[in-house]
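Entry 12.
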Amino acid sequence: MAPPFNFRDNIRYMRLLIVEDEKKLVQSLKKALETESYAVDMCFDGETALEQALFEDYDVIILDLGLPKLDGIQLCKQLRSEKVTTPILMLTARDAQKNKIEGFNVGADDYLVKPFDFNELLVRIKALVRRGAVSPETIYKIDSLELNTTTKLVTRCGKEIKLSAKEYGLLEYLAANKNKVIAKSRLLEHVWDSATDPFSNVIDVYIGYIRNKIDKDFPKEKALVTTLKGLGYSLKE
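Predicted 3D structure (tokens):
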């Protein structure tokens, strides 16, 4: 089981797309961002990224300008023409003013020059998410369970529940969609990343972890985690 989640960071559980042809940089960023509880997908060329961004739901797209097949400017312009409103952070080695202006003109939301400090990247990502957020609910309440998306504190009957990063991400997504049946494929898309085997039992395993912590550890309380065979999972009041 993953180690307990570090409550140091005030971020929602989010899904990012990194579009960059420097594979070592992408792998490094993916690893670092996942330690910050982000789910991260990767693309190494503009054409693949366009297809991915049109059919998947992301909170932020981190986009390099110098891409093969379809460069960052063309990709950004095409995404905006297709009404994709996901915040876009341009990431490039070019520091000329004209490149920044060109990026903003085609719909980029922010610009970061390589090499950059990882902590600055985190700050930029969070700022973009806040800018595009539509009054997110801070505290989810399901029966005697409370989940604070700002502090990442989860309690039931006033008792704190320790969760791993993935457990927290899964629980938050279920809480945000309480009383709805969420398919396994949808949970994989929003809490894991596209590289996760859709036929794996990872969702079942983590649902089991959550059920143990929020239901079985509180035997006098109503069970909240529901499995609907063949349909998905639900967090029901």
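Annotation: The CA atoms of residues 16 and 87 lie 10 Å apart. The chain has two domains: 14-132, 139-235.
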